[in-house]
What does this fold into?
Amino acid sequence: MLIRRKKASGVASHEITPESVYLNRRQIIKASGLVAGSLVAGSAVSAFDAVMPKDKTTKFAGVAKGYSKLGETDKLTPLELATGYNNFYEFGTGKDDPAQNAGPFKPLPWTIKVDGLCAKPGTLDFDDFLKPHALEERIYRMRCVEAWSMVIPWVGISLADVVKRFEPQGSAKYIQFETIVRPEEMVGQRGRGGLPWPYVEGLRIDEASNPLAILAVGLYGAPLPNQNGAPLRLVVPWKYGFKGIKSIVRMSFVENEPKNTWKAMQSSEYGFYANVNPKVDHPRWTQASERRLDGGGSLGGLLAARRPTLMFNGYEEEVAGLYAGMNLATHY
Ligand code: MTE
It folds into this structure.
């Protein structure tokens, strides 16, 4: 597998958030009078500026550790695999295409449009979008619908906080997300044969408000590499990876279920909910087990041992309540 991206410094897991940095951030927060998670934009500025990297080669200057629940056998996926084996069809359909082709993509400057059924719509510059929110590290399992999985330390903000901030109206039942369309920088968006663009995803508002859902801006303590969805992507760890839409430019509060790309392409194989479920097989392969890409096994970790897939990817306790009364076999 070809990986052209420079090694982003090969951090070991224990180096991601050294305690000294974490304490430092707490002092910054205290000094600025900011309560973590506060939505008061003005008071958050100093903490934000202190934490945000100045450019893509710099790391976040300390990020608080947020919710992470791993099993005893969960090991972090090496950075090289997490950034070298990707799905991002805008840059090609091969697993190493994104790493090879995403170099010229420019994730900054960036704007995010928030519209639809909400009281505070607007088009925000990337920094202004993030500023009111606390950045956190979350280590999550990511289970692709193709039956492989990884364990990734993300840096991100709570999607629940973002939802609250834009004040959805009562009639808003879903959020629709869209990826940027930039064929001049995204080779997969040129010509015929790709997916219909933009890539679209969606969540019910109550799903988006679950504390596990985040908008990620980084992994392994550094800004997101282009191939992982720079500068902003969705992470919903109890759902199949295709829900984790990358390089988001638009979020719309809507009444009806969004037409997400993979369901629109092939509704007999991919649904809207896409909750990880070992009991509901993909028509062409089993979902009862998965290949964990954690560096173990041969072929640079690509031929890893299979392990049983967990209901809701192991987050059943946190999210099962969202689907009470729903038939999970038909809402796949
Ligand atoms: N987002 C966009 N815009 N385009 C894509 O092709 N692929 C999805 C998801 N988000 C995809 C996307 C799929 S199928 C998966 S498994 C994850 O991104 C992969 O994320 P990763 O490459 O960071 O591991």
Remarks:
- The radius of gyration is 19 Å.
- The domain at 25-330 is CATH 3.90.420.10 (Sulfite Oxidase; Chain A, domain 2).
- The first strand starts at residue 64 and ends at 65.
- Residues 1-44 have pLDDT under 50 and may be disordered.
